[in-house]
Amino acid sequence: MSFGDPNNPYGQPQQQPSPGYGYPQQNQPQQPGYGYPTAPPVSQGYGGGYPGGAPTTMPSTVSAARVMLWVIAGLQVIGVLLYAIGAVAISAASDSAEDPALKDALGDVPVGMMWAISVFAVGWLVYAIMLAVKFKSGGNGVRVAALVFGIITAVLSIYPFFLIGLVHLVLGILIAVFAGNANGKAWFNRPRY
Fold it and tell me: Where is this region: Disordered (predicted)?
């Protein structure tokens, strides 16, 4: 008999293998087995990269859309004031004009249309403020309303006043994009407890 043969069952007992070789040691982590991938940790969420599946603070793009709504509301205030003051001034000038050329020039300006645009701008102002206030606590309906607001704002800014409405065009497009992207969807569809 030879004690040098490692496969001899009657041979000299072999030394314990060094750590990392052979059987796993008690204090060392187990290596994954062959054939099956390891599962993700149980605490990992599956919701747009947010832990727990939903954001806890308003994403920056959604916050930017909210700020843009406030900017549009401020611009609407300025527009309402300009249209109302212009309608009052034209109405007063056409009533007291003694010069026939001035009376003819002012007679073609539709004062009623200016008042109608002022009333519409006030309504759009209220709509923008309501959306901006609801961004913090609103659900998917607020998201859809913000998308509609942004798209209609962009469309309305093109036709009558392109140069003046260019700011509204850009802001309307950005509001629609920021409310409609994945961060907006995750924010407005988050669970509320």
Answer: 1-38
Closest by CA to 151, choosing from 173, 135, 118, 171, is 173
pLDDT at 16 over 70: no
Q: What is the pLDDT of residues 133-191, one digit of tens each?
A: 998 888 889 999 999 999 999 988 887 666 678 888 999 999 999 999 998 888 888 88
Tokens 């006030």 belong to which residue? 122
More confident residue, 105 or 116: 116
Backbone angles phi, psi at 17, to 5 degrees: -65, 150
**For the whole prediction, is pTM greater than 0.85?**
no
Q: How far apart are CA 135 and CA 132, in angstroms?
A: 5
Q: What gap in Å lies between CA 132 and CA 74, rounded to an integer?
A: 12
Residues 6+ apart with CB under 8 A from 100: none
CA atoms of 161 and 181, how far apart (whole Å): 28
- In this predicted structure, what is the pLDDT of residue 40? 62
Token match 């994954």: residue? 32
Q: Minimal CA–CA distance to 114: which of 128, 98, 94, 129?
A: 94
Distance from C-alpha of 187 to C-alpha of 49, rounded to nearest angstrom: 12
The number of beta carbons lying within 10 Å of the beta carbon of residue 168 is 21
Q: In whole angstroms, give the CA distance from residue 52 to residue 111.
A: 57
Secondary structure of residue 121 in the 3-state scheme? helix
